[in-house]
Amino acid sequence: xxxxxxxxxxxxxxxxxxxxxxxxxxxxYKVQGIFSSRSEKVMVNGxxxxxxxxxxxxxxxxxxxxxxxIFGTCSKQQxxxxxxxxxxxxxxxxxxxxxxxxxxxxxxxxxHPVGTTAYVWELQEExxxxxxxxxxxxxxxxxxRFCIFPKHYQYNLHDPISYPYEGTPCKLxxxxxxxxxxxxxxxxxxxxDFTRFNPVHFQNIEKSIAAxxxxxxxxxxxxxxxxxxxxxxxxxxxxxxxxxxYVIARFSAYRNVWWSFANEYDLLKSKTVQDWERxxxxxxxxxxxxxxxxxxxxVSMYDHSRPWITHCSIQRIDVxxxxxxxxxxxxxxxxxxVLDEIAYEGNIDQGWGNISGQELVRRxxxxxxxxxxxxHGETFDRSDGVLxxxxxxxxxxxxxxxxxxxKAILDETPGAGLRQKQSWFFDEVVGxxxxxxxxxxxxxxxxxNRPNRRKFYFQDGVTYKAxxxxxxxxxxxxxxxxxxxxxIQLPGRExxxxxxxxxNRA
Length: 506
Known about the structure:
The chain is of the alpha/beta class.
């Protein structure tokens, strides 16, 4: 057995051991481990990684000495050992947890999800994977949604670099469009053994999860989707359950993992609500770290009030309104609201992929000031066929820098995050610090409205520092201090905001 004696808190401890290769090691043998310190005792499941190798992973939550015992039917031998966990390095804040209508890392640091979508970036050729990580290193986003299964859809018709099961995939008939297969079901010619995983596929994904973790980016893993010509969306309940357990055993020890049960769950016609609830029970029982859990809709909203769901992951269901419903979703479900699909900046011929950068940024600001969060996507029809929304690579739109600018402002918010505050005017959305009574912190966002000034009514003797924010040109202008009744001048153009901070003088 091989393992490291020294591990960082909230990082991956991994023990590697040899075991039985006869029969089918993926289903016929098990490996488990018990890890204990003075502060916690955790049982975890391991997995078969091929070539007679079994692996068990564990994420320690405390900087203490741990002892472990590994056992199972994969070997007649029981393994024991110990390792020391040292305190975190800079940038490691632990897993993300829910805090009211917002999020925080396990060490208490506020976390504001400013995400993007690149569905199968990790299943592209290596050069595009590297390019994606280089783009993400620019700090635009701190979360990315992507799939474990490959995706077959418009602009994504080529084969992935790997498949999740042993077997032979069908080949795409170039005379048939993706709509042909989408409307008629999977293409014949697949020959999979759904009882035997392809470890190379999952090794590639966990490498990607680790690389994102180094950048401080959460990996929002989409476990199922309907965009499929290979049959992965139509497996039996037994095959599904085996898949979910394998994924949990492999990936749950990474602190930056989130579980997104599905992208557009309601398009998976072979799955019922009972299936999704069964998957949820598996995750609750077998993920010892309680990672965040969501499920994403196409048209029909899932019941996000279900106790296993930690936060809302929502696609717009109205052509025009999306972020405007943020406060309604908060009140309806009592949970954080993440608008994971609000249309993409781009120019393709699909209605979900051709809004402007200005409109996408406006939706981000609307969602944020109303107390929720939004997710970016980009779909420019390019000659190389590489669209960020599916493949990753490079970004060409105008929104990422502006979203990064918003992210910095969100990080300055007192407390956990923002909530919507009633306004006297119909041309603005007002946010104030959530969970804090009279926080003395306010953001007034005007979107496509263009007032040339705004009058404020506050108590005499309370002073506010005022800033005018140009959310598109990314400037913050200090316009002085005010109290009582006062007026702030604006440039009379779109996408402006005013921020007020109460001045506390000792």
